[in-house]
Structure formats: C-alpha cells, structure tokens
C-alpha cells in the first residue's frame, strides 16, 4: 500500500508537471506579446475590474484552505468533516466560476471579446452600446489617463493601442478560460471525492485520492496566483 | 539455441495472457499491459497502411513532371494526411505503446505498469483522437501540411483544420499518459536487485523518451488549442492583421515537434541496443555511455527547435546558437552508433532477421543523421531548406531508422508476444526487399533536393523526372517489403512453430518467463543479481 501510495503521488506530480508545461506555453507567449505591445497591455489591463479579480483570489485561496482541511479530515477518518470541507471547497470553486461569469459578461457588454464570433464585434475605441450608454472605450480612457500624467498622446496612437488590446484580450480569455476549464474538471473530481468520502472510504490507512485531489486543486490555485498579477496588476496604470 | 532444442520441441504454455480470458470484453476492458500493447499494435498498423496509401498516391503523382493526376489542392491534402497519420498516429506511439507497453514491465520484473487503468485509458484516448483524424479525412482532408503553419491554417484554408487539430491534441494526451506510466513504473516498480545500473537499455531509452513526452506534448496541446480558438473564434494570437505573430506559432509548434522526433527515435535505439547485443553474443560496449546518451538526447532535443526556422525570419544571432546546438545533439547519437559497432566487434554475429533490421538501422540512421548536419549548417540550409533534401533526411531517420527498428523489435519479441516463431526465410527476404526499396525510394531524393526540387510540389521541371521515377519505383518495392511481414506474421499465428521461452537464447528478464507470458508476467517475483547483457559468462540464470 505504501508503495502504491508513493507511486500514485509521484504519478500525480508528473501529471501536474505536464499541466505546468501546457500553461507555460501560454505564459511564454503572453510575455512575448507584452514586450511587443506594452502600451496595449497597459490599456487592456487597466480596463478590467481589479476588484472582482481580487475577490476571486481570496475565494480561491480560501478554497485551497478548505481543501487542505479536507485532506486532514480524511487522514483523521472524520467522515462528517471530510464531506463538509469538500463541499465547502466546491462551493468556493463554484463562487469563483460565478464571479468569472460576471467578469466575462462585463467584457461582453463592453465589446471586448476578441473576434466577431461570440457577441458583438471587438471594438475598443468608442461606439460600443450597452443599455443605451457607450461603454468600453479604451482609446478614450487611455488618452485621458495619458493627459492626466502629462504625457499626452495623439488620437491615432490611442486608437491603435486600443485596437491592439484585442491581442491582450485574446490572452485574457485563453488563459482564464483554460484555467476555468480546469476548475470545472476540478469540481467534477471534488464531487466524486465527496461521494466516496460520504461512503466512508477514506481513513488514516487510505486517503490517497483526497490527497491527490488536493494536489490538483492546489495546482489550479497556483495557476490563478500567477494569472491574477499578470493580467490584472502588473500592467495596470489606472482604475 | 539452447541445447534442449535438439531433444525437446518447445510447446506453448497451457495458460498465458492470451488464453486466460476470452471474449471481447476481456480485451476491451483489460488492464493487462500486454493486451493493451496488442490493441495498440492493431490500431497503429491500420494507420501505418493508411499513411502508406497516401504515400503511394504521392509517388504516383510524382511519376510525371506535370501535375496531372491530382489537383494541386488535393496533392496538398495527400502529403498533409500522409505526414499527420504517419507521425501522430503511427510513429509516436509505435515503439513505446506497442513494444514498450509489452516489454517494459517484464524487463523490470514487475507484474504490470504502475497505473494499468490509465494505460487502458491511454488507448481509448488514442482511439478518440485517431477517430477525429479519420473524421477530418472523411470531411475532405486537411491541406496545410502536417506543420499547420499560420496564418494559412488559421485564416485561409477551408479544410477541417480544427477537427484534425483536436484529434492530434487528444492523441497527444494518450502519449502523455503512456510516458507518465513509464516514468513512475521505472522509478517505483523495479524488481528486487534491479538497480538503475542494471536496467536494460530498452528501459533507459523509453524512460528518456517518456521524459520528452511529458514535457513536450503539453506545449503542442496548447498550440493546437490556440490554433483552434483562432480559427473558430477569430481571436488574434497568430494573425498579423491583429498584431499577432505567425512566427510565434512556429516557435511553439517546433518546441514540441522537434523533441517529438526524439520521442520517435529513442525507443527505436533502445530496441537496437537489445538486438545488437543478443545477436553478437556480447555485452553492450559502453552501457553507461549509451544510457546517458539517451538522457542527453532528450535534454539537447529541447534546445534545438529553431533549426526548422532558419529562413523564417529569426535573427542571425539566434540562428547561430541553434545551429551550434543542433551540431551538439548529433554527438550522443554518434556515441550510440559507435558503441553498437564496438559491441559487434569480435562478437559472434549471427544474421537472424532482427539483426538484419538492426544492421540496416545502424547504416541508414547514420546517413540520415549525418545529412541532418548539412541542414544544421546555416549556409547550406539556405539552399536545401524546403527541398527534397529535407524529405530524404527525415525519411532516412524515421523510416530507415525508426520503422526499421520497430520492425526489428517486432521480429525480436514476436515469439515472446505470441509464443510462435515467424518463418525465417520470408522474413529475411522481406528485410532485404525493404532495405533495397527504401534506398531506391529515398536516395534519389537527396540528389533531387540538392539540385533544387522543392518539397510539397506536385509538379516539377522535366529534368528531374528520372530521379522521381526511380523514387516511385523504389516506393513500390518498399510497399512489398512492408506488406510481407503483415502476411507472414498473421500466418505464423496459426501455422508458426511454438517458440519456447527463449528462442534467441538471450539474456534479460523477459526471456526467463514463458512465451507468451502468464497474465502476471512471472510465476514468482524475480530477484536480479547480475548485470545486464552478461553474454559469454558462466551460466547465471536469474530467478
């Protein structure tokens, strides 16, 4: 059993390494484009709502805490606490996804979804109508901000920067989308673990699935810990 | 041969993994790595012949200088589907998923791989991925080249690129799970006494290939996801109109696809190590060097990707660095070739069919590898990039190298896998025909490339016709060489002689158990006390 636990844990770490390589490809491309379109990265990052991102970060860290508690409870063989903490983790995970939904809806309203297949055509330089108001005008925000810091830019440059934010948003959706996809899978895994825990399958002798599920969940959390600063914080100049 | 063979004819064991359980469910829901290997064998053989059919059509078109057999767009589909089927649905799984799956646990003295259910899952994932590939084929086939360069693939063609990209991405996960399984098994499930220094070189080779599988395949996964997103939703990661960079796609694609070629060749090199030592009756020369050269190839393989992009607009300085590293990656492969030949020196070489394939490998892989150096040198690459020289180079290493090693391995372990011997005379003939056909097909292509014939063109200047006709003639001979094993292996299942435990009198744990092995591989857990390949030493059977 000991050898099986060692082998399974090792296997899970190897799998997480592959996940790291997959997200790594996206991170590498993000960094390359950030160097190429620095102004657009600033403008795009400033336009997404940092408050929701911050709340999501707290939610996810909280869910990692409940997950760790679930592993501890499984190790102790406490069935009720296991189920409670696992369900708690799932609730927090679902909350995260819900908030992401709110953010995505805001992007939809502001015409900031790249391409023209989903929602309205991408438009970051004025003219995106939602509820009768014009919203999501990154060109205007960029010009205003630049004027405030006494480094005014011509309108053509502001428009170009706003157009280039389409690439930023491509990365925003690809990275958070892939992350959200992994969270959905994680929720499924947690549901299965909750079912097994409620049947009393885990104890001090055998709690490997909970531990491995925990490893996966923590990994998804860590990816977000990197995503949040990269997308919301480091390029932000205002807002 | 063992002395017992003169007095007692070998018989099949009464119970073994093939007759332990009957019925389709026992196969489709098996957790036995040996049965999963057979499942993979059947699947990839199908894709080999499918890819081969596309090759036949290509060579038919190229018999005449005009593009008269197929429309140019159709020709694009032919070489794309040839490449995709051969690389992703045949070569990448070939030795690891068939021979590795079957033989690795037995070589380690284990009952199975670390995660048997994941092993079965890997086959199903492969089937789903391959199914998408077939769907793309039925949907008209893709015409972007197996390299899917953007923005052609993301914005301009009307072929089912997304379906095929998704299929490859899914099949990639099958590869990841196989690699993960091999790594954990090698670390955690060796029999008592089987230290790292006693591992057969087949295990080292598969381990190194598995490292590449788990590190590289996720990158192609995300690249293909981005291609699908860009094509489906028009986001602009690689699209120049939106500020994206098409060369970024090339970097990401080749970051996996170059190590992928080492995924393909390393397990084959492991097979050759096993065969050469057995048929020279001599321990492998430089075991440590061969083992570490496998790891070195895996590591170096990750830092040479941009040698596919020398004329894509990368800076001369970075091209210089990649060129230098590409020269370096040839060194560990050369170490292996020298060690194999040194193993044969003063050995007692016998030319059974597996050895014929191994010898062919050593020669053809050397040619293929050395011509890679012409391509790695910046100056010459300007002239021969995207010509038939490249096509000839990679076919020498992949077909003359990898497929030859795969066939050699199948012949070597066929008695172990099925309990039957294949007929030696037709097998030797097939090996010879394959060798002749292969060289006739691909050697003229070196010359064609040097003379300037571009690849992926269905029409060419008339002065190239003679060489093209030679190449197509060779292809028909090669086809015969490949079909023959299909016929006689199937024949041997019913009419072949029983092989006995160790028809080659080889060292290695797999030969200490019955042919075919029992479901749990060994009747008792083996304990390893000797170094591997102790040919020529006093009797020291491992128990």
Q: Residue ranges of chain B: pLDDT <50 for 5 or more in a row?
A: 538-543
As an assembly, this protein is heterodimer
Strand content of chain B: under 5%
Q: What is the gyration radius of chain A calculated from CA atoms?
A: 21 Å
State the shape of chain B. Answer: globular
Mean pLDDT of chain B: 93
The CATH H-level superfamily of chain B is: Cytochrome c oxidase-like, subunit I domain
Number of beta strands of chain B: 0
Number of strands of chain A: 2
- Overall mean confidence score, pLDDT of chain A: 92
Helix/strand-derived category of chain A reads mainly alpha
Greatest interface and its participating residue counts: A-B, 40 and 36 residues
What's the helical proportion of residues of chain B? 55-70%
The helix-and-strand class of chain B reads mainly alpha
Number of domains of chain A: 1
Descriptive overview:
The complex is a heterodimer of chains A (239) and B (543). Chain A contains seven helices and two strands, in the order ααααββααα. Chain A is mostly helical and 239 residues long. Chain A has one domain (2-233): Up-down Bundle (Four Helix Bundle (Hemerythrin (Met), subunit A)). In chain A, strands 1-2 form a two-stranded antiparallel ribbon. In chain A, helix 1 runs antiparallel to helix 6 (155-198) and helix 6 packs antiparallel against helix 7. Chain A is elongated. The termini of chain A are far apart. Helix content of chain B is 67%, strand content 0%. Chain B is built from 17 helices and no strands. In chain B, helix 3 (33-61) runs parallel beside helix 6, helix 5 packs parallel to helix 15 and helix 10 runs antiparallel to helix 13 (353-376). The longest helix of chain B is centred in the middle third of the chain and has 35 residues, at 246-280. Chains A and B meet through helix 1 and helix 6 of A and helix 8, helix 9 and helix 10 of B.
